[in-house]
Amino acid sequence: MSRTVYVNGEYLPEAEATVSIFDRGFLMADGVYEVTSVLGGKLLDFDGHFARLERSLRELDMACPVTKDELLAIHRELVAQNGIDEGMVYLQVTRGNPGDRDFSFPDPATTPSTLVLFTQSKPGLADNPTAKTGIKVISIEDIRWGRRDIKTVQLLYPSMGKMMAKKAGCDDAWMVEDGFVTEGTSNNAYIVKGGRIITRNLGTDILHGITRAAVLRMAQEAQMEIEERPFTVAEAQAADEAFFTSASAFVLPVVEIDGAAVGTGAPGPVAARLREIYLDESRKTAV
Ligand code: PDD
């Protein structure tokens, strides 16, 4: 079934929605994005995603083309028009179409940014069977650029990492820099040791996950111990549990790293509890 998508102020059938070949998102990966999950037809953590979008745009000297209220209305309209019960809304803002290829940024007064949104229907998103089995990851070197805190559309290396994982018979790759895990190809990484949740501290070397912030806040409220610091692959392999978080996967267990079983080799109780708390709380606050 054809989706209705949003491009620069218009709601269109997906086959009729177009962006210029000169768009800087296409030529330069000069753009940022957000992925917001939908459960029960409502948006999870919309405030957090909007705040991070504003930050990404600010860091790249781009203006936000719409207000928060307008963006929420566009999200809701697309969810309604496409009958999304469980799934995601993808949003992308690029530095627009200056009409030619040029390394210099165009003048925003004459080149407005491009805003595109579309939905992805994922029935069963919250009931993902992987939560009961866990995933296997490999470790790869992190050779991405140095501003991973900005959610840009430069996703070639993360895509390559996913392919390397698939080739190795695994589900994802955890990236490693200077001996320490940074994050997964499209998620934040955690281990659990002696009941303590360990995850890399925020900086420019990882994306500041919206799910990460929510899960850590909920873990703290549940009196769980948290340590924000880098960890190695060896430490992860020797941990009691490992898991990852992202807007589209929520909390999912990792049961194997580079062929070594984590803990018992089965999903652990901390990841299961955090998934449950996160889904419960998020449904309550969804908009
Ligand atoms: N990925 N780290 C990276 C590199 C990511 O791409 C993502 C999100 C995260 C988790 O952030 P959040 O909890 O805000 O989703 C961490 C999205 C889901 C994607 O690219 O599809």
Automatic annotation (TrEMBL):
It holds the Pfam family Aminotran_4. One of its GO terms (cellular component) is cytosol. Coiled coil: none annotated. CDD domains: D-AAT_like. GO terms for biological process: amino acid biosynthetic process; branched-chain amino acid biosynthetic process. Its EC number is 2.6.1.42. InterPro entries: Aminotrans_IV, Aminotrans_IV_CS, Aminotransferase-like, BCAT-like_C, BCAT-like_N, Class-IV_PLP-Dep_Aminotrnsfr. Keywords: Amino-acid biosynthesis, Aminotransferase, Branched-chain amino acid biosynthesis, Pyridoxal phosphate, Transferase. Pathway: Amino-acid biosynthesis; L-leucine biosynthesis; L-leucine from 3-methyl-2-oxobutanoate: step 4/4; Amino-acid biosynthesis; L-isoleucine biosynthesis; L-isoleucine from 2-oxobutanoate: step 4/4; Amino-acid biosynthesis; L-valine biosynthesis; L-valine from pyruvate: step 4/4. Its cofactor is pyridoxal 5'-phosphate. It catalyses: L-valine + 2-oxoglutarate = 3-methyl-2-oxobutanoate + L-glutamate; L-isoleucine + 2-oxoglutarate = (S)-3-methyl-2-oxopentanoate + L-glutamate; L-leucine + 2-oxoglutarate = 4-methyl-2-oxopentanoate + L-glutamate. GO terms for molecular function: L-isoleucine-2-oxoglutarate transaminase activity; L-leucine-2-oxoglutarate transaminase activity; L-valine-2-oxoglutarate transaminase activity. Belongs to the class-IV pyridoxal-phosphate-dependent aminotransferase family. Acts on leucine, isoleucine and valine. This is Probable branched-chain-amino-acid aminotransferase. It comes from Cereibacter changlensis.
